[in-house]
């Protein structure tokens, strides 16, 4: 299957030891192993939903915490990549004719980046961190389904079967929200739109990738655009952008979420460089499993039978799509 099933980063997979120039000379360690990176990045994605659910308990509006964490994460990633690793790898330049395309790309991709994050952080306190985390497992199969509908990919039996399992998982996940209150049930439907935004972003970022642009720079641009969009949104709705009080907990939550975004996106690209984009796309599945576990451990969220069945169905779908891709 083509790059449409990746996480939106257009690059080639590297051999072990290659593709991560800023690690050269440091020797091999655990963070150079793709399987370790996969679980770390996917785990951080799940932890973000835990932080979002905890935000109100520390005086934060979830969107305000997200807003400043995105900005802090972008600044942190910028400082790290421009200082510690600034002499690593080859520099590439963006063609002048692509600058307008880059502006459009950053605007659209930034919105597609921030929209699902906004939904996730607001929905987590309503429907549970486990529910939201599980929704991150769908983009791989959904991206393929959309690509087939747009005739960007041909239908393949095993991959098509994986999409069916993914859709069944979506139905089961929706049914698992029937036990919630009316308000929470509504938010569960909003949460189910998260994979739609992510899958759309996967396809858009792939087919509109600006020639000569570096992944890190595009990530920084997307995060900056997302921050601006979120800042406008919170201002228009009159959402308080500061915590009720600057307690140790409120500061710690902001600091922790900022560090998570900085490390998550840094390791995200390291995983992309060492293992390739398709392998990278499995982080959603890791986030789903870890999120269910953390939801239980931190908030005593006991997954019901429908939610467990949804997790199993989505897992089967991911496996079938991945195996089908190898045979395509």
Description of the molecule:
The chain contains 13 helices and no strands. It has 328 residues and is an all-alpha fold. The chain has one domain. Helix 1 packs antiparallel against helix 10 (248-275) and helix 3 (99-127) packs antiparallel against helix 8. 70% of the residues lie in helices and 0% in strands. The N and C termini lie close together (6 Å). It has helices at 34-54, 62-84, 99-127, 129-135, 139-149, 157-176, 182-191, 194-207, 215-236, 248-275, 277-280, 283-299, 305-327.
* The number of domains: 1
The radius of gyration computed from the alpha-carbon positions, rounded to a whole number of angstroms, is 19 Å
Major sheet summary line: none
Share in helix: 55-70%
Sequence of secondary-structure elements:
HHHHHHHHHHHHH
How far the N terminus sits from the C terminus, by CA atoms, comes to 6 Å
The poorly predicted ranges are 1-28
- Morphology: globular
Count of DSSP H/I helices: 13
In terms of quaternary structure, the protein is: single chain
Question: Could you tell me the number of beta strands?
Answer: 0
Strand content: under 5%
């Amino acid at each position: 299957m083509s790059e449409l099933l990746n996480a939106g980063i257009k690059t080639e997979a590297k051999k072990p030891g290659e593709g991560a120039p800023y690690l050269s000379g440091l020797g091999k360690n655990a963070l150079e192993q793709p399987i370790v990176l996969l679980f770390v990045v996917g785990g951080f994605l799940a932890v973000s939903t835990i932080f979002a659910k905890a935000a109100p308990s520390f005086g934060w509006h979830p969107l305000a915490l997200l807003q400043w964490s995105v900005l802090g994460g972008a600044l942190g990633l910028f400082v790290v990549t421009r200082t510690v690793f600034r002499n690593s790898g080859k520099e590439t330049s963006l063609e002048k004719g692509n600058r307008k395309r880059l502006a459009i790309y950053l605007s659209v991709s930034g919105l597609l980046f921030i929209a699902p994050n906004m939904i996730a952080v607001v929905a987590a306190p309503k429907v549970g961190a486990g529910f939201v985390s599980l929704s991150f497992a769908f983009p791989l199969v959904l991206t393929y389904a959309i690509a087939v509908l747009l005739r960007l990919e041909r239908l393949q039996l095993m991959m098509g079967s994986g999409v069916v399992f993914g859709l069944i998982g979506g139905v089961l996940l929706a049914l698992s929200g029937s036990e919630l209150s009316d308000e929470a049930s509504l938010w569960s439907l909003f949460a189910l739109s998260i994979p739609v935004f992510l899958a759309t972003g996967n396809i858009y970022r792939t087919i509109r990738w600006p020639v000569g642009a570096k992944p890190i720079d595009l990530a920084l641009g997307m995060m900056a655009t997302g921050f601006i969009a979120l800042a406008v949104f919170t201002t228009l709705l009159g959402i308080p952008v500061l915590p009720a009080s600057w307690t140790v907990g409120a500061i710690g939550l902001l600091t922790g979420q900022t560090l998570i975004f900085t490390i998550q996106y840094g390791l995200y690209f390291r995983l992309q460089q060492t293992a390739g984009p398709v392998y990278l796309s499995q982080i959603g599945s890791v986030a789903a499993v870890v999120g269910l576990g953390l939801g239980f451990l931190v908030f005593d969220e006991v997954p019901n039978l429908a939610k467990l069945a949804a997790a199993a169905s989505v897992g089967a779908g991911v496996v079938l799509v991945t195996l089908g891709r190898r045979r395509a």
